[in-house]
Design a protein that fits this description.
The protein is of the alpha+beta class and 205 residues long. The chain contains 7 helices and 8 strands; from the N terminus they run αααβααββββββααβ.
Length: 205
């Protein structure tokens, strides 16, 4: 664990403060919590097999609400600084996502019965593609893109949470944004902690 903290702090010092101030703050909170100095509440975002939606449940139009941070297990959560509050991390990621045009209610994802999906920002369609569902994984393939995006979905209290690892996050963002270079700090955090996934939380329209 100490080795991970040292690596994380070293990476933080290498990032440009002006370009990534809000994400460096995330790294600082994670590192602080891992050292046992955080005063934040306990993070409870753990992926559950009981919350995997069915094919029928995922069909429809979903509007973006906020970022989501989840862990694959209780053990993964504890090894990745369990005292860090997911709500705090999500709030920081909210600022980051807004910079690439992902804002509450402004982005929607529609899944139809024929395994097609479309993504809109406001009233403008930005991407379309196809999706498949296998077990606990939803795979998005953007039209014109060769790299698929593998997502772990969770359906709870009317919210659809779609979280992914660093590679799929980059593929997802490259599908809806014109650049992904500023994702480096987010993907570095994800790669530093086994079992942590980041994504988006949506509500059905």
């Amino acid at each position: 664990m100490k080795r991970k903290i040292i690596i994380l702090l070293t990476l933080m010092s290498a990032f440009s403060f002006t370009a990534n101030a809000q994400l460096s703050d995330i790294l600082g909170k994670v590192a602080s919590a891992a050292s046992g100095n955080s005063t934040l509440s306990t993070l409870t975002g753990v992926i559950s097999s009981k919350l995997i939606p069915t094919e029928k449940q995922i069909i429809g139009t979903w509007a973006y609400q906020e970022p989501a941070v989840m862990f694959t297990s209780d053990n993964a959560l504890k090894s990745a600084a369990g005292s860090v509050a997911s709500a705090s991390i999500e709030k920081k990621l909210q600022t980051y996502f807004s910079k690439v045009g992902i804002k509450k209610g402004n982005l929607t994802i529609t899944f139809d019965e024929d395994k097609n999906f479309s993504i809109k920002k406001g009233t403008k369609s930005v991407r379309t593609g196809t999706y498949t569902i296998s077990g606990s994984t939803v795979t998005l393939t953007f039209k014109g893109k060769t790299n698929p995006c593998k997502i772990t979905p969770q359906l709870d209290n009317g919210s659809l949470v779609m979280v992914m690892d660093a590679t799929s996050l980059k593929n997802f963002m490259s599908g809806i944004a014109s650049y992904v270079s500023s994702l480096s700090t987010v993907t570095t955090v994800l790669n530093a902690y086994d079992g942590m996934k980041v994504g988006i939380r949506l509500s059905k329209q």
